[in-house]
Amino acid sequence: MMYMNTQNRCVNIIAHLFNAPLEDSESAVGVGTVGSSEAIMLAGLAFKRKWQNKRRAEGKPIDNPNIVTGANVQVCWEKFARYFEVELKEVKLREGYYVMDPEKAVEMVDENTICVAAILGSTLNGEFEDVKRLNDLLVEKNKETGWDTPIHVDAASGGFIAPFLYPELEWDFRLPLVKSINVSGHKYGLVYAGIGWVIWRNKEDLPEELIFHINYLGADQPTFTLNFSKGSSQVIAQYYQLIRLGFEGYRNVMENCRENMIVLKEGLEKTERFNIVSKDEGVPLVAFSLRDNHRHDEFEISDLLRRFGWIVPAYTMPPDAQHVTVLRVVIREDFSHTLAERLVNDIQKVLHELDTLPSKLSSNVKAADGEDGKPAETRALESKKSDLEKTREITTIWRKFVTARKQKMNVVC
Ligand SMILES: *Cc1c(COP(=O)(O)O)cnc(C)c1O
Predict the structure, then answer these.
(1) Where are the residues of the annotated region Disordered (predicted)?
(2) CATH 3.40.640.10 occupies which residues in the chain?
C-alpha cells in the first residue's frame, strides 16, 4: 500500500506541475512506468481504444488507425506503432527546421488519426515543438470535420524543464486538446534509470476497460501497466527528489543546467567553426554542426574527443534533412562551468589536430598513426571481419570454456 500511495503522490505532484484541471479533492490520473517508452505505449493504447470505441458506436471501420508525428520522433513511437499496429504518419523535416511543422501535421490528420504526438524537447536538438499552435489549428480542423482528434505531448525531457524555466509557455493541460503527457523521471526528473510517468487529463481519457482491478494483495488495486511487478526504489527516489528539492530546488538545478549550456554554446560559437542547431529555449543541450565538413566531418570530431574522455555522439538528421550531421552535448545536473570550458578547449584541440591531418582519415590511417598500437594490417583485417564471424568466434571460445569447467568441476550447469 505504501508503494501505491507514494506513486499516487508523485502522479499528483506531476499532474499539478502540468496544470491538469483538477478539483481540490480530486486525485490525478496517471501511473509510474519503467520510462517514457512504456508511458507512451500506455498513452497510445488509450488513444487507440478511445478511437475504436467511438468509431464502433458510429458503425465505422476500425482497421486503419494512425498517429501523426514529426520525423524527429524518438524510436519508442516506432515501437508503439509496430507492436500495436498503428500506422505512423511522419511530417518530414527540412534543412534548418528540425521539428514537426504544426501546419503540415494538421494537414495529415484524417478520420483514422488516433492522436497527434508533439514533442516537448526533440531528442535530436532539444527544441520544443509549438504545441499551442498545433492545438489551435487542430481545434479549427475538428470544428470543420466533426472529428475530435486529440494531442499527446511527449515531454520525456522537456516535462521537467519547461515548468521551471518557461512557466509562461503553454504546452500542457492548459491546452484543451492535450489529453495525456509523458515524462521521464530518469532524465531531468533527476532519478536513476528506470522511471517514467504518464498523466491523463481526466478520468474519461483513460478507457476504464484498460484498467485491471486486483484484490488478492489485500485491497482493490487498479493496475494499468505493461508489466505487473516492479521495484519500488525508483518511485521512492522520485518522491524523495520532488519533496527534497521542491519547486525552487528543481528550478535552481534547471537554471544551472541552462547557464552551463550557454557557456558551452558561446564557447563553440567563438571558434567560428560551428553552426548551432539547438535553441536557447528548449532542453539544455547544445547540438551543433561544422560550418564546413568537406575535409573533416562531425564523426571524426566525435571519434577524437573520446581520447579526452568525452563521449559526444554524432548522428545524421532524419528525412528530409538526412544530409545534415550534428554533434550533441546534453547538459546534466552534475556538469559544471569548468567542465564546459574544458570541453570547448578539448574540441579546439581536436579541430587543430584535424586541420593538420589529410582529408577524411580512414581507419587504416588512424591505425598507422599508432592510435591503438596495432599495425595497420591487423586493424584492416579486424574491420573486415563480419560481426557474424566475431559472434561465432566468441560462442566457440565460450563453449570450450564451459566444457572445460564442467569437466573439472563435474557438475551440471
Ligand atoms: C528519451 C526519450 C524517450 C524515451 O524515453 P525512455 O524514458 O528512455 O523510455 C521518448 N521520447 C523522447 C522525446 C525522449 O527524449
Answers:
(1) 362-385
(2) 2-246
